[in-house]
Every structure is written in C-alpha cells, then in structure tokens.
Amino acid sequence: MTRTVLFVCVGNAGRSLMAEAIFNADPPPGWTAASAGTRPAGSPNRRTGPMLAEIGIRIPAHAPRLLDNATIDRAARCITMGCLDDASCPARLHARSSVDWGLEDPARLDDDGFRRVRDEIRSRVGQLRRELLAAGAGA
Question: What's the CA dihedral at 92, 94, 95, 97 to 10 degrees?
C-alpha cells in the first residue's frame, strides 16, 4: 500500500507544487506526494516550472487543485507551507495533526528569493525523506 504525503498551501501554485515534485522525483519506497490548495490559483506560478527545471525536476502535470476532505483523509502525512490562516484553512485540516514549514511565498520575491524558497523546500523534503526511510527501517 502506498502512503501519501500531502503538501498544502493556499494557491497550490508554487511551494506545495514544488514540494510535491521534489518529493516524487525520489520518493521513499511505499510513499508518494500530492499537493492541493485551499483557494487554488488558475495555473501554477509562471516561475515554478522553470525554477524546478533548474534542478532537473519537472513540475507536476496537474493544474492547482482544491483541497478537499477526501484528500486530507487519504494523507498519511500533511505538511502546510506556512500560508494557512483561520480564514483560508478548512476546519478538517485544523483538526488533523500536521507540520507547518513556515515558508515565505516565493511569488512575492525576485528570482533569487524564489530560488531560496525552492532550495529550502528541497532541503526539507530531503530531511522528510530520510525520516520516512528511517521509520520504515524500524518497522
């Protein structure tokens, strides 16, 4: 059975899409990633694809997705990107155990700032991958 890490932000246009793509480029055995937003944008941020391509990763093929209860319920792990507040976050997500990475919105940054956020996501995804591998070894 494959378990899912769910990456969530408001627009699902930058941070959560990058996290999904980076995770799925080299997932731990038995894991996959998905992403969604509480108010998804009409399309990914125009810089998300090129910034991922710089590190040899493709942007997910799907458009930004709406976070729904079924997606939340299917996730074994839920990670928010630091952009959810009471107004934008479904009550169901508040009720579940999740981790918040507290990342700045790269859409508001210049290209160097966008890269810093991307690289921070890459580092955190690497750490998450190591944690999941270690947990699997102990199971």
Answer: 120
Q: Is residue 132 part of a domain?
A: no
Identify any residues that bridge with 100 across adjacent strands, giving them in sequence order. Answer: 80
Q: What is the pTM of this model?
A: 0.90
Q: Which CATH number characterizes residue 15's domain?
A: 3.40.50.2300
CA distance 108 to 25: 26
The two three-digit tokens of residue 125, written as one number:
């995804």
d(CA 54, CA 52): 5
Question: pLDDT band for position 47 (50/70/90)?
Answer: very high
Q: Which two tokens stand for residue 67?
A: 């976070």
Positive or negative torsion for Cα 8, 21, 76, 132:
negative
Give the number of domains in the chain. 1
Q: State which residues form the domain around 43.
A: 3-127
pLDDT tens for each residue of 56-111? 999 999 999 999 889 988 999 999 988 665 555 555 565 566 788 989 999 999 99
33: enclosing H helix or E strand: strand 31-37
Q: Where are the alpha helices (DSSP H) in 54-110?
A: 69-74, 91-95
